[in-house]
Amino acid sequence: MCNLINSLWNGNLKPAKYFCEDDKQIKELERLIEQNKEMLTVVLKGEERKRFEIYNDCVDEYISAVCEQAFCKGFGCGAKIITEASVEADSLIKY
Q: Which domain holds residue 73?
């Protein structure tokens, strides 16, 4: 099961591709993040710029790891809900 979830997350299966495609709020936040990142890259020099790049890489890695965990936990929760609903439906049919 975990391999299937990881395959979904890593894009080998593509349902996540369309997750935020039409979400205007997320698209606007992405635009603002990129705009501010570009502005900071231009303004910061030397050690500050290097530190910002390291910070940004850490944040990107953190967000990726948290999103992967949330995806896996959500998938597992959905599977449990379906299992419980199936068991309940089976018990209702018997009576």
A: 23-94
| Count of domains forming the chain | 1
- Written as one letter, the residue type at 50 is K
- Does residue 2 sit within a domain? no
The one-character DSSP state at 14 is: -
Q: What is the pLDDT of residues 49-79, one digit of tens each?
A: 999 999 999 999 998 888 888 888 888 888 8
Angle, CA of 72, 58 and 75, to the nearest 5°:
5
- Report yes or no on 41 lying in a domain: yes
The answer to whether residue 56 sits within a structural domain is yes
Give the chain's mean pLDDT: 83
Dist CA 89 CA 95 (whole Å): 10
Question: pLDDT (tens digit, 9 = 90+) per residue, 3-24?
Answer: 777 777 777 765 545 566 678 8
Instruction: In whole angstroms, give the CA distance from residue 16 to residue 57.
Output: 22
Domain assignment of residue 30, yes or no: yes
